[in-house]
């Protein structure tokens, strides 16, 4: 677990608890999207990922992206 205010160097799948599903979101696309979002450059439009074999579990990815967008909204995290 990381200390508040300290950069978390763990891979994104560990930071956010992404699990691999039989069919899920393309892992590279999800990680690129979240990396841009965390850098303060949220991608325009809704997130859309290809469904692939052995991708990230869709429900968890959707949860995380919704939370990150909410935190990045007006005023950012409180």
Descriptive overview:
With 78 residues, this protein is α+β, with helices and mostly antiparallel strands. The chain contains three helices and two strands, in the order H-E-H-E-H. A two-stranded antiparallel ribbon has the order 1-2. Helix 2 (27-38) runs parallel beside helix 3 (58-72). The longest helix is centred in the C-terminal third of the chain and has 15 residues, at 58-72. It is globular. The two termini are 20 Å apart. The model has no long low-confidence stretch (mean pLDDT 85).
Topology:
Layout: H1 12-16, E1 20-25, H2 27-38, E2 51-56, H3 58-72
Antiparallel strand pairs: 1-2
Helix pairs in contact: 2-3
Mean pLDDT: 85
Largest β sheet strand count, sense and barrel closure: 2 strands, antiparallel
Helix/strand class? alpha+beta
Name the shape in a single word: globular
The overall strand count is: 2
Number of helices: 3
Series of secondary-structure elements, N-terminal to C-terminal: HEHEH
Percent of residues in beta strands?
15-25%
Poorly predicted runs are: none
Helix content: 40-55%
Radius of gyration based on Cα positions? 13 Å
In the sheet with the most strands, the strands line up as 1-2
Task: Please report the distance between the alpha carbons of the first and last residues.
Answer: 20 Å
């Amino acid at each position: 677990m990381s200390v508040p205010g300290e950069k978390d160097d763990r891979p994104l799948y560990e930071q956010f608890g992404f699990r691999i599903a039989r069919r899920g979101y393309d892992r590279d696309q999800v990680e690129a999207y979240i990396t841009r979002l965390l850098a303060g450059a949220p991608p325009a439009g809704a997130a859309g990922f290809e469904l692939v074999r052995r991708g990230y579990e869709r429900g968890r990815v959707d949860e995380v992206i919704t939370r990150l967008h909410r935190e990045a909204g007006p005023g950012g995290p409180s």
